[in-house]
Prior knowledge:
By secondary structure, the chain is mostly helical. The chain contains 5 helices and 4 strands, in the order αβααβαββα. The strands form 2 sheets. A two-stranded parallel ribbon has the order 1-2. The protein binds a DNA duplex through helix 2, helix 3 and strand 2.
Amino acid sequence: MSESFREKVYSFVKQIPRGKVVTYKQVAVKIGQPKSCRAIGAILRANPNAPYVPCHRVVKSNGEIGGYFGQEKISQKILLLKKEGIKFIGKKIDLNNYLWKLK
DNA sequence: ATTATGACCCGAT
DNA sequence: AATCGGGCCATAA
Length: 103
C-alpha cells in the first residue's frame, strides 16, 4: 500500500529545518507529483496540526508567503517566520537566502 | 459521475 | 513590476 497523498506531504514538511522554507512546488516535486503543487495547499489547509507540522515554512515560488488557514491567519504565519529570523521585503521574502536546498 | 473551489505555477502581455 | 489566462490536482458537495 502506498502512502496517501496527505501522508507524503506531512512527512516531508515535518523535515523542513527552522529558519528555512520550501515552495509548494518543491514539495510537489519531492513527493513525486510535480504537477500537484496546487493540491499541496489544499492538504495543508485541511489539518496541518499547526505546531507539529511546520506548514508556515511552505511558501509560494515567487517569494510571497501564500496563505494560512484560508485568508484569516496569515499574520500569524508571518509572525512565525519572522520569529525564525526570516526578513520580509514588503510582501515577499528572499528565496535565495531562505530556500531549503534539497540534496 | 460531474462541478466548483482554492495556502499554486508559469509563460505571455 | 503588475496582470491575465490556461493548466493541474485533491476535496467537498
